[in-house]
Amino acid sequence: MDGREPAVGVAVFAGGCFWCMVEPFERLPGILSVTSGYTGGWTDDPTYERVASETTGHAEAVRIEFDPRLFPYERLLDLFWRQIDPTDAGGQFQDRGASYRTAIFVQDERQRELAEASRRALERSGRFKGRIATEIVAAGPFYPAEDEHQQYHRRRFGHYRLYRQASGRDAFLRRHWKRERDRKRLESLLTAEQRLTALERRPEPAYANAYWSQPEQGIYVDLLTGDPLFGTPDQFDAGDGWPAFRRPLHDGLIVREAELGSGPPRTALLSRLSGLFLGYALREADATGGGGHYRVYSAAVRFVPCSRLAEEGYAGQLALWEEMR
User: Fold this and answer.
1) CA distance 110 to 76
2) From 11, 14, 17, 62, the catalytic residue
3) Taking a C-beta distance cutoff of 8 angstroms, is the pair 325, 318 a contact?
4) Between residues 211 and 315, which one has the greater pLDDT?
5) Across the chain, what does the average pLDDT equal?
6) Does the CA dihedral 279-303-194-174 come out positive or negative?
7) Is 17 a catalytic site residue?
8) What's the rounded mean pLDDT across residues 189-198?
């Protein structure tokens, strides 16, 4: 081994019902596949019915193949903790039993070290009052679930949404990850101007902002997470004094939200992993991936010039950059 990251990494997480553990990870840059399945038990070729009977020792889990250059294992761990109740040793939310336990199935010692460090950090944070019950164990055989359980949130969208709402998972996550103290900490990381735009959704002045006419080549990243959101190859002058782009760098890092008020309805843009308000989708990109008009406020992003991409940890974006040029 030469110490370099593998081209493709594998992560396996159990977080209760596997239907709810696919959507949070998919469509992110560097996520190659998310497969629902079973692992951690003592029987071969388990089925959904047998696992649910609590006689196999298996847990419902997801297996994620990822490119560590674009989405490292540490970020997968952080995202994992934000999907579960790690203090519940008897299941997750309305689903009870060992097959719904939470666990991190590590592939090697490096993953174990990172997983244990992330669990210690969560314990020290005081975010949860109870003991962290999530196991960290060596990965064993992973058995893909039946076809009817793959991409369930897409094929049975209505039922999936009703199930999530009834389970109490989303309410629990909002209560523990969107606390008032989290907002205050977020505010402390931003300047007054950035807070007005990224948190309070107040438009910045046209032509009096940093990036409306960007002379350098580079990418625009999330102020807090550093997620790459837009690039200058897609930037154009819309004639209105704000940065405009034909498409996002990674659509999976952008969330659309209907904004209904006294004026015409608009589509607000939020950064998926930080929740920061970015601007508006005035026109969506077409089938070819271009032709859109995304107004992005300068105060909501940070610019990284092309010459500093590798230095600032965006080496994995260089291949994409060359394709865009």
Assistant:
1) 14
2) 17
3) no
4) 211
5) 92
6) positive
7) yes
8) 93
Spatial separation of the C-alpha atoms in residues 269 and 108, rounded to whole Å: 38
> Alpha-carbon distance 26 to 21, whole Å?
9
What digits encode the pLDDT tens for the residues 122-178?
999 999 998 999 999 999 999 999 999 999 999 999 999 999 999 999 999 999 998
Q: Which tokens belong to 291?
A: 């032709």
Tell me what percent of the residues of the chain surpass a pLDDT of 70: 95
pLDDT confidence of residue 169? 95
The DSSP bridge partners found for residue 37 are 61, 144
pLDDT at 236: 94
Q: How far apart are CA 255 and CA 194, in angstroms?
A: 19
